[in-house]
Predict the 3D structure of the following.
Amino acid sequence: MTLRVPADLCAAVRERRAALDQLSLDLHGTPETRFEEHYAVEQLAARLAVAGFEVDKAVAGLPTAFTATHRGSADGPTIAVLLEYDALPDIGHGCGHNLIAAGGLTAAVAAASVRPGHRGTLKVIGTPGEEGGGGKILMLERGVFDGVDAAVMFHPADRSLRARHALAASHLRVVFRGVSAHAAKAPWDGRSAAAGTQLFLTAVDSLRQFIPPTARVHGVVVRGGGAPNVVPDHAEVDIFVREATSLVQSGVITAGTQAEQPPFAVTDASGKPSGFAVDLMNEAAERLGVKVQYKTTNLQGILAGLSAGQYDIGVAGVGATPERKKQVAFTTPYYWGFTDVLTLKGSKQTRLSDFDGKRIGAVSGSVQETFVNREMPRAELVKFKDQTALITQLLSGGVEGVVLGGADADEYAQKQPVRIAVELDSLQGSAFPLRKDGDPKLLKDIDAAIDAMIEDGTYVRLYKKYFHDPIAKDMLRERPKLVWQINKHPDLSPTAN
């Protein structure tokens, strides 16, 4: 819906146009970098005070932050107009913060002048340190935005837009340490930290061809040494990494899944995934009001993609091991099963020791690989990229056994000429892995959605669709709400078998 700006408000802005231009030029000619914007604050605060605003300086413990409040005649919402006024180092007002400050101030003063009896509160918030200082974040954390119902800000551009998508940014300081030496007398005694910055920035440039077009990586050397005849022992690079704000916020979750990991995740020829993990995720997403965009990869691709920010979540049977928890975040486990050793039908092995000296396959990077190394040290481990390759080699005689999660093993035992030779309790459950730097609310929301599915019976319905085993005791410990469902479905009790 488009609303026309009231004529009297337009007229009030036009009346102040000359003063707006002069203020903007004045700030442009007096650039001040982050958290040093003392002149700008004095100019802005003085004009707001003259216009009848109550000005508070040095708010949130920041000397160049301020608020200016115009209270209405009745209760109502609090609307904030944000001003930025810091300049770029060595460049000045290249981003137009002088215009942001002058334009925002003029809008607020004009509104207060033509609507002096407005409802609610009109608040101008001066936010310093936008260029690399995170001033708004500090002010938010320190309560300046408490009670604000809506905040607006003007930003200059080459056209007028009511809204514009922005990129989320992370500011990184990369420090390199070396060994100092005299560059003329004995350079071989030194180790140049500056050389580290050169190699690092070259590597970043090489990385660009592999990052998505929505991302930006850019940086400068902020410290590279003090004198050319001294091998620098300390150097620093400032890097900005920008990317589209989490896809979850636009209603889409990007998920990495596997092509062949029954019954957790299987992708058909058309690219459509299905399975227990996929069905759980789809149900959770529907309850959260978001959509899931799946991309097929393997287990290592899921974990690497989460660390690289390519996915928001992994949707497969991923064991939540302590080692993986260093790399990614996990939901509470949604499944707990067994670890099985599969062999060809007709074989005689029944114990782990029966595989001593034999070739045993496992998916590379999986918890089953760890299992073989720890529990079957005398077997010869052979690693494969996925379960399809694993089973193919078992059927062709390339390996004499393969180690899989119990649910996966059950699926293959029903469809292939293989049998379960050994079955042991799993040491950890399967959970959904998420980006460590992702949205923490997403993890909590998915866990809450799964708990809701347990309470209303959806989880049990999906579980019975894919599994015939009772629910493990460890799973009841992780998801206590399942105890109530087991009372209704005694065939799922850990003691049922």
